[in-house]
Request: fold
Amino acid sequence: MRLPQAKLQSVLDRFREVEARMGAAGDGAEIVRLGKEYAELRPIAEAVARLQKAQDDGAELKAMAASGDPDLAALAREELAEFDARLPRLQREVALLLAPRDRDENASVILEVRAGTGGDEAALFAGDLFRMYQRYAALHGWRFELEDASEGEAGGYKEAVASITGDGVYGRLKFESGVHRVQRVPATETQGRIHTSAATVAVLPEPEDVEIAIRDQDLRIDTYRSSGAGGQHVNKTDSAVRITHLPTGIVVTSSEKSQHQNRAKAMKVLKARLYDLQREALDTARAEARKSQVGSGDRSERIRTYNFPQGRVSDHRINLTLYTLPKVLEGEGLDELVDALIAEDEAARLAALEAEA
Reply:
């Protein structure tokens, strides 16, 4: 694998510069900024050091293999075989760290699941997807917190919003955005006919260390009484909150029991949505790269089909079909799909990097 030496040297030079400046910095804000950049660059510098040491060891082994000592040469040739197998792995490790990666890879996310076409069945499927991600989060040790939900008349959700907090959440869930289609016989179907319905999923990175300017005059905040299943669960006061961001028309709601908590939760979701708009506006190059790798992720694009009669899940972006539908919906089988999407993304990033070399 060829590595772009100019880019590699530039990263190493910057790492050494940041390391030197950290020792001399006196301003608290600068120390924090340099510390964050140092943490980002350090894995690359360490991977390069491992690669360079391996290359130096390989040169010594080749010299020993060409020596006049038969025993020493035989031993060196054995170690060279191991070296030849290890070198590509080290090169790939460096290449992946060098390749452009999403700046929000390690961010927590706001997850939004909405029923699409299909009426009650779509709401039931949206509920299935929402629970799938909840179980998946639990398996990875992430915190899953419901932000807002609107239940369907027959069950499931018309819309459900949650925050998922943990390290690397966005990196594993970012390819879930899009239209998910289900094919199954609804419980209300008396003639056994298979129906097709859909739900949309949006995965929005929560902004970290990014200022999202929201002016009070750009907001319309309404309070209203929550709707619910009836009885003790229906709020008797106007505690639910609806926030409308006037410049963009974005509307977010939260309908827990506390109006103060609802406002805070709604503002968190609003910031995530505005940040998502900002990312799209400022990072069109990334959007095009993603489109070429695993589909655009546009919410109007069907990305995956869940076929219950055949027990299969098909991801249309990478032409992968698994016959493990129950495991996928339980969360434990989702990793196989996620890993395949990440591998496809990595392959495209490495190809782009090699083109620079």
Q: What stands out?
A: The chain has two domains: 5-98, 109-347.
